[in-house]
Amino acid sequence: MVYRPTVRYSDVFKEYVDSVFNSTRLDRNQIIRLALFIAAHSEEYKSILKKYKITDVSLPHPNWGLTDDGYWKDQNYIKIDTNKPIFVLEQGGIKIVIG
User: Fold this and answer.
1) Which long-range CB contacts under 8 A does 34-40 form with residues at least 24 apart?
2) φ, ψ for residue 32 (rounded to 5)?
3) What tens digit of pLDDT does each residue of 25-79 get?
4) 3-state secondary structure of 42
5) Could you tell me the CA-to-CA distances from 60 to 15, 21, 46, 55, 78 in Å, in that order?
6) CA-based nearest residue to 2, from 76, 89, 52, 72
7) Could you tell me how far CA 69 lies from the centroid of its own chain?
8) Sign (positive/negative) of CA torsion 45, 64, 1, 72?
9) 3-class DSSP state for residue 50?
10) Do 28 and 21 touch, CB atoms closer than 8 A?
11) How far apart are CA 25 and CA 90, in angstroms?
12) What are the protein's UniProt keywords (predicted)?
């Protein structure tokens, strides 16, 4: 499922996004997703959020790491867990791999 918010922002942001769009091979959606992707790991972003934080509610941590670039590149990205265990069952000449 893809979340499709309507984003309203000042012309200064539109001009910046358009400039990045015109100087890269990224589409506008990728540019916005990249900004959010990086912001979640940014100390500056966290510092600003802390100013508006609700008392007794902790700020969330992103469920992605900085190396998970598929999240901003592809709107339908599904991370494949490469660390999950692989079970191999061999019985009667048949090999079944699960995981």
Assistant:
1) 34/72, 36/72, 37/64, 37/69, 37/71, 37/72, 38/66, 40/64
2) -65, -45
3) 999 999 999 999 999 999 999 999 999 999 999 999 999 999 999 999 998 888 8
4) coil
5) 30, 30, 10, 14, 21
6) 76
7) 7
8) positive
9) helix
10) yes
11) 48
12) Plasmid
Does residue 69 sit in helix, strand or coil?
Answer: coil
32 CB-near residues (< 8 Å, 6+ apart): 7, 17
* 8 A C-beta contact, residue 64 and residue 75: no
- CA-angle at 16, arms to 10 and 19, nearest 5°: 140
Which sequence spans correspond to the domains of the chain? Answer: 11-98
Amino acid at 46: K
Write out the two tokens for 56: 């007794």
Q: Is the pTM of this model over 0.85?
A: no
| Tokens 């100013």 belong to residue | 51
